[in-house]
C-alpha cells in the first residue's frame, strides 16, 4: 500500500484497521514530509503487526524527482494529504497562505497521484482512495479557499474514476465532515458532527471493501450538504456559513 500524507491520524488509523482486518501488504510505503514522526509509526506497525514498511520523503512545496519512486509498487493508494490553512480574512488575502492551500490540496498533489495511477492502469488493477472534504461541495465564506481546492480535488477524483473504470482500477472519494485531528485542533466543532480518526478509518475500510464510489464519513453530512447545495443562490449569498 502507498500512503500519501502518512502523518495524518486518519491515514494511520486506516493502515491499522486494514492490518487488523487481515489485509496483507508486501510493503507499505509511507510518503511524508516529516520523516521522524513517520518513522515512529513505521516502527509501531512493525512491532504490532510485523508489517514491513518504507518511509519515503516527499515535500509538495518543492520540486519532486519522480525517478526516486520507480521502485514503489502497490495495489492500493491511500491519500490523506490535506492543509486547512488560515481561514480568517487576514489569511484570505495572504497569497502565501492561499498558494499553500491550493498547492498541497490540489495542484501539487494531482501529479503525484497521476504518477501512480498510470502504474495501476498499466497493471489493470488497484484502488485509489482520496480524502477530499464536504467543504468542496459548495463554497462558503468561512473556508472557500480550502473548499475550492477540495472541490477541484473531488472533481479530479470523479474524472479519474470515470477514466480508470474500464482499466479495472477503482477510485473512491471520501468526504469527511468535521474531524477531531491535529488540523482542526482548537476549532469549535460540534461533537455530534465530528468523527474520530478511528471512526473515519472504519467507514473508509467498509467503503473500500464494498468498492463504493463516494462515501461521507458520517452519513448526516450527506444530508447537511444536500441541503446546503440546494439553497438558492440569492438566499445563500446572504448567509453566514
TrEMBL record:
Alphabetical list of InterPro entries matching this protein: NAD(P)-bd_dom_sf (IPR036291), SDR_fam (IPR002347)
Transmembrane helix found in the keyword field: yes
Keywords from the named record: Membrane, Oxidoreductase, Transmembrane, Transmembrane helix
Listed Pfam families: adh_short (PF00106)
Regions that span the bilayer: 214-231
Keyword Ribosomal protein found: no
Recorded superkingdom: Bacteria
UniProt record similarity statement: Belongs to the short-chain dehydrogenases/reductases (SDR) family.
Protein name, entry field: Short-subunit dehydrogenase
Naturally occurring in which organism (per UniProt): Chryseobacterium lathyri
Amino acid at each position: 500500500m502507498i500512503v500519501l500524507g502518512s502523518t495524518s491520524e486518519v491515514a494511520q488509523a486506516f493502515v491499522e484497521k486494514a492490518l487488523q482486518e487481515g489485509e496483507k501488504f508486501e510493503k507499505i510505503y509511507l510518503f511524508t514530509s516529516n520523516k521522524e514522526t513517520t518513522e515512529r509509526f513505521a516502527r509501531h506497525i512493525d512491532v504490532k503487526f510485523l508489517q514491513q514498511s518504507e518511509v519515503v520523503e516527499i515535500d509538495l512545496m518543492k520540486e519532486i524527482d519522480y525517478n526516486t519512486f520507480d521502485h514503489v509498487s502497490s495495489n492500493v493508494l491511500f491519500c490523506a494529504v490535506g492543509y486547512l490553512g488560515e481561514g480568517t480574512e487576514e489569511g484570505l488575502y495572504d497569497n502565501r497562505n492561499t498558494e499553500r492551500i491550493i498547492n498541497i490540496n490540489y495542484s501539487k498533489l494531482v501529479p503525484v497521484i497521476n504518477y501512480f495511477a498510470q502504474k495501476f492502469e498499466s497493471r489493470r488493477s488497484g484502488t485509489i482512495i482520496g480524502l477530499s472534504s464536504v467543504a468542496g461541495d459548495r463554497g462558503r465564506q468561512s473556508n472557500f479557499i480550502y473548499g475550492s481546492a477540495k472541490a477541484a480535488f473531488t472533481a479530479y477524483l470523479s474524472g479519474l474514476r470515470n477514466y480508470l473504470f474500464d482499466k479495472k482500477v477503482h477510485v473512491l472519494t471520501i468526504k469527511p465532515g468535521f474531524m477531531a485531528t491535529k488540523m482542526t485542533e482548537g476549532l469549535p466543532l460540534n461533537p455530534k458532527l465530528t468523527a474520530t480518526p478511528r471512526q473515519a478509518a472504519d467507514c473508509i475500510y467498509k467503503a473500500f471493501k464494498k468498492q463504493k464510489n463516494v462515501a461521507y464519513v458520517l452519513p448526516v453530512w450527506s444530508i447537511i450538504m444536500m441541503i446546503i447545495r440546494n439553497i438558492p443562490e440569492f438566499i445563500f449569498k446572504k448567509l453566514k456559513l
